[in-house]
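[INFO] parsing input record for Myb family DNA-binding protein shaqkyf family
[DEBUG] input buffer:
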Amino acid sequence: MEYQGFYNLPSPLCPEFKEMALDIYMNQKYLLYNLNQNNINREENGSSQDIFKCQNDQFNENKNQINCDESPPQKRYWTDVECIAFKKAIKYFGYTTARGINTFLISAFVGTRTPTQVRSHAQKYFMKEKPFDVELKLSEKDIEKLELIQKRNYLRTNCSRIDIS
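[DEBUG] output buffer:
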């Protein structure tokens, strides 16, 4: 099953993915910077109608680039394809916690989810993954200590059940 996401991004394993994702990120960053500058100019000049028209034009232009629907996203479970795409993006960018994740890039890669939905999914994903991360971060001394505790506990429970007559 071939994956098709927002912006027609290739798989994160392709060499073009990083360049395309970075271009999308820089474009969004540029648009946000322009909107911020327009807000500053509006406050200085007091001319709100021209600025709002400019902001709406930029927003509509960006919306057309993204190809997003007019309807609000519906609540539904993440499909296997979406989860795999999410995990590929997380792995590619090397995220280990939900903090600091660029949800715009990941939502662009997933293609069917908003940045807010990606943020929520990332929080839940890393909460579930935490026990595995803790297990992997244990040092050799910690592992030896835990194994010793397990052996002692096993001997206590088994030896107390044995009847010596």
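[INFO] The radius of gyration is 25 Å.
[INFO] shutting down worker
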